[in-house]
Design goal:
single chain; flat; 1 helix; alpha+beta
């Protein structure tokens, strides 16, 4: 069975860091594609031996803040 997860990718120096919003799993890669592949593998390992319930996708939005 497969599930979709919400991934946020940010560039940090020479790496792309991918964070999963549903379970806080993260990984990185030298390219966006590598970061997505690595976080996908990490998510699969996260659920492999555990009875975690996959939650529905979070609401993702933006807000404007004066700084």
């Amino acid at each position: 069975m497969s599930h979709q997860f919400t991934i946020v990718i940010q560039k940090e120096e020479d790496w792309y860091v991918a964070h999963c919003l549903e379970n806080f799993v993260a990984s990185q890669g030298k390219t966006i594609e590598e970061a997505i592949s690595n976080v996908s593998e990490a998510i699969a390992f996260y659920y492999e031996d555990n009875d975690y319930v996959v939650v529905s996708p979070p609401l993702v939005t933006m807000c404007e803040v004066a700084i």
